[in-house]
Amino acid sequence: MKRREFIAALGSAAAWPMVARAQQIDRTRRVGALLAYQEGDELAQARIAAFRRGLQQLGWVEGRNIQIEYRVTGVDSDRIQRGANDLVGWAPDVLLATPAQAAMSLQKLTGDIPIVFANVPDPIGVGLVKSLARPGGNITGFTSFEVNISGKWLELLKDIAPAVTRIAAIYSPQNPVWQERMRLIESVAQSAGVKVTMIPLYSSGEIESSLGNFATAPNGGVILLPSIFMAANREIIIATTARHRLPAIYPSRFYATGGGLFSYGINSDEQFQSAAMYVDRILKGEKPAVLPVQAPTKFELVINLKTAKALGLEIPPTLLARADEVIE
Question: What are the backbone angles phi and psi of residue 273, rounded to the nearest 5°?
Fold first, then answer.
């Protein structure tokens, strides 16, 4: 080989790792998102939009430097698992999951692909992470669980409907933290002189009969515990409480905007926008094992005045002044 050709070949070989690294950095990154919401549900669309918005603010643009594959499965466990299988088989760079059932399905399938969860109650209790400060595995994210809020629901319901002496605490047994929430509701109920009836719902067909039976006695109210089942059936639940004239407090804003009396809970859209931040950090090389699970710090009170009027309730001015949003 001539000297000039040898030097050219040597330079080309030396440059090759730099070119390869540049191609690796510039390649389109892949994110799989598993959402156990009903397909076409506006709630799922709002969560996806918040996640996309967060990514765009960080410079990730679909079709240019990032590709997102979604699986919106509903609450059926078999569909959730099939969605998880599809996404893990696609071999993405990062996975997004909500709620706990979706995150747990992905965790069973991979210990290598980083997973970011959002809107998950008690991630330690369900075995997703070892601790909030140092998750320790391939998964981290944002928890919706703040145990003390459960007692606050009862206090707020009494503020808005003082005549209530009986409360139906409606829950889904599939929710992994319902027992802890119920314990706190009952502890506050004792001091407030309120009797709590625990009502599990296993299917949408039980909503009318369960609430209808409870409503046969006077002075009743409802606390709805959060779960994907309740979110999927919120229109039926809101309509049934209205028909039986039961004052009800809900765990998320979308119940109040959908006609429910009022809600107190976290802003879940913010969690999904924040989840985009963790996805960004992982795509840039950080490990989920050392990214702390973040708990909610802000809670929203949303009151629907139209529903209050229909129930004959006068909202205390102090409660209206505290509200983050009042729906006229």
Answer: -70, -35
What's 310's DSSP letter?
Answer: H
Strands (E), 4-108: 29-35, 66-72, 94-98
Domain 27-145+268-290, CATH number (from 3.40.50.2000, 3.30.70.100, 3.40.50.2300, 3.30.250.10): 3.40.50.2300
What per-residue confidence (pLDDT) applies to 9?
43
> What does the block give as tokens for 301?
């009170």
From residue 243, give the alpha-carbon distance in Å to each of 197, 220, 223, 253, 256: 20, 13, 16, 21, 16
Structure tokens, 56: 């765009």
Q: DSSP assignment of 101-128, as one string?
A: HHHHHHHHH-SSS-EEEEEES-TTTTTS
Q: Is 89 helix (H, G, I), strand (E, B) or coil?
A: helix
* Fold agreement between 27-145+268-290 and 149-265+300-327: yes
Walk along the chain (328 residues) in steps of 10 and give the mean pLDDT of each run. Answer: 42 41 64 92 90 97 95 92 97 96 96 96 89 94 82 93 96 78 84 92 94 97 92 94 97 94 91 96 96 91 97 95 94
Structure tokens at 236: 């039926």
pLDDT at 26: 57
Assign domain 149-265+300-327 to its CATH architecture. Answer: 3-Layer(aba) Sandwich (3.40)
Indicate the SS3 state at residue 326: strand
Domain boundaries, the chain: 27-145+268-290, 149-265+300-327
